[in-house]
């Protein structure tokens, strides 16, 4: 399934992931990154972002791991790479079929709602300069995640920013890109206010 497949909805992405999981009796990270060539950058940011939004972000070391993965992936998008490189150990990680299926039962209803409110639009905000800007913001946000392990609410906010940008990149949704920028700037403003207070 490698190539330059473009996903116009989150449902299409999940369909592709499920087909890959059936073929492999599970889903490896390497399969995700090979699924769509350069277009795999969005999903590779989106999925860690969703984990950061979940209760799993409260488990020690999880935010740091998410931060490392997103920094690695978004950093390569920022540098203009056409495909994702991952270290051997990370590339070999995989989710078994049972856990994948349980995750899909949770994600599918959410994806149907997301697909009703998102899609390709505001093309000017999805051009290369915008993608690289989004990647830079994701790197900045990911770099803050290790120290946020002691502040779960802030880790969740970081996960929200990553999820929005991951969706925007995956679906080429310029409105989501602008919303992600607004959420990021709001978070920066709130952080400065708390710092000065």
Automatic annotation (TrEMBL):
<feature type="transmembrane region" description="Helical">
    <location>
        <begin position="176"/>
        <end position="195"/>
    </location>
</feature>
<dbReference type="Pfam" id="PF06055">
    <property type="entry name" value="ExoD"/>
</dbReference>
<keyword id="KW-1133">Transmembrane helix</keyword>
<keyword id="KW-0812">Transmembrane</keyword>
<keyword id="KW-0472">Membrane</keyword>
<feature type="transmembrane region" description="Helical">
    <location>
        <begin position="151"/>
        <end position="169"/>
    </location>
</feature>
<dbReference type="InterPro" id="IPR010331">
    <property type="entry name" value="ExoD"/>
</dbReference>
<feature type="transmembrane region" description="Helical">
    <location>
        <begin position="129"/>
        <end position="145"/>
    </location>
</feature>
<protein>
    <submittedName>
        <fullName>ABC transporter permease</fullName>
    </submittedName>
</protein>
<feature type="transmembrane region" description="Helical">
    <location>
        <begin position="58"/>
        <end position="79"/>
    </location>
</feature>
């Amino acid at each position: 399934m490698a190539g330059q497949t473009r996903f116009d909805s989150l449902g299409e992405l999940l369909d592709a992931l499920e087909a890959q999981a059936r073929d492999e009796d599970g889903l490896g990270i390497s399969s995700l990154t090979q699924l769509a060539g350069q277009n795999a950058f969005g999903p590779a940011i989106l999925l860690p972002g969703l984990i950061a939004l979940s209760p799993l972000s409260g488990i020690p070391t999880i935010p740091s791991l998410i931060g490392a993965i997103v920094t690695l992936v978004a950093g390569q998008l920022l540098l203009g790479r056409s495909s994702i490189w991952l270290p051997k150990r990370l590339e070999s990680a995989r989710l078994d079929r049972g856990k994948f299926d349980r995750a899909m039962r949770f994600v599918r209803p959410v994806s149907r709602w997301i697909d009703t409110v998102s899609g390709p639009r505001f093309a000017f905000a999805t051009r290369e300069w915008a993608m690289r800007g989004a990647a830079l913001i994701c790197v900045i946000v990911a770099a803050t995640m290790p120290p946020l392990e002691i502040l779960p609410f802030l880790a969740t906010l970081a996960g929200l920013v990553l999820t929005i940008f991951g969706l925007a990149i995956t679906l080429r949704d310029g409105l989501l890109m602008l919303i992600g920028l607004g959420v990021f700037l709001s978070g920066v403003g709130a952080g400065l206010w708390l710092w000065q207070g």
